[in-house]
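Researcher: Good morning. I'm working through a list of sequences from a screen, and I'd like to move beyond sequence-only analysis. For each chain I'm collecting a predicted structure so we can compare shapes side by side. This is the next one on the list. No need for commentary yet; just the structure.
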Amino acid sequence: MKKLQVSLPHHFDFDQCLFFLDRGYDECLYQLTDRSVHRAIDFKGELIPFSMNELKGELIIEVADAVTRPAQEYVRSFIIEWFDLERDLNPFYTLLSERPSLKHLAKQYSGLRLIGIPNLFEALCWSVIGQQINLTFAYKLKRRLVEAYGESTNYNGHTLYHSPTPEALVNLDEEFLKAQQFSRGKIQYLKNVAAAFLEQGLSKSVLSEITDFESRQRVLTKIKGIGIWSANYALMKTLHQPEAIPFGDTGLTQSLFNLKVIADRKDEASIVQFFKTVKGWESYTVFYLWRSLAG
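Model: Good morning. Structure tokens for this chain:
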């Protein structure tokens, strides 16, 4: 085995991040044992499995001896992006500390990073799967899709899956997915997302080259089945777009109500006004508000 290291920034707590990764749902794209994370990612058409844990201020990553240097560097960069390790959280914690209703979040969840979904196609598919259903059922559907259309590899006793590619989903078997409890709408929307990547040239790099948030949002919402919530969710999780607020999200609304930021869950104007007070850190604020729902 080869061991790689990633130095950790100030304001990073591995256990806080593990809590988010292990919230009791049936996650299929990584596995956790004790304080280790096991995952497989795609590098130039090849699945690269790795294990990761934390030791003395560093993330220690293990890969197979046969993994090439470029693939090793890709794994390191993926993890840095996945855990948003290059961001200085000091301004965010200062912002929270200045707001009586939010200041406890900085202390209670200190070191929690906005754990992303570096793969744009995966993020959009997940946003489609999760539309209008509870998370428990959404994770079940996700597993059924991944196990049917994704690739897998065995590593250190773990079967590790990778999310399906656009090529795998553009011609998916509709009758099979209906039998797996996918609605007709979700099936079509997944195919639409796949077609956007294969036929319209959508990619993470193309989206990244667009300079303003609204234009990025418009590119995604042109895909039938991707509304504002789904577009903003993907922009938050894949590009760490600060302004990407998933307005209308029930968990977000509930957390704001719980913290007495809003007095009425239907008061959309107050929600919009609140996010103006955390400009530049909207998506991080959303992530911490979601975290507060778990106690």
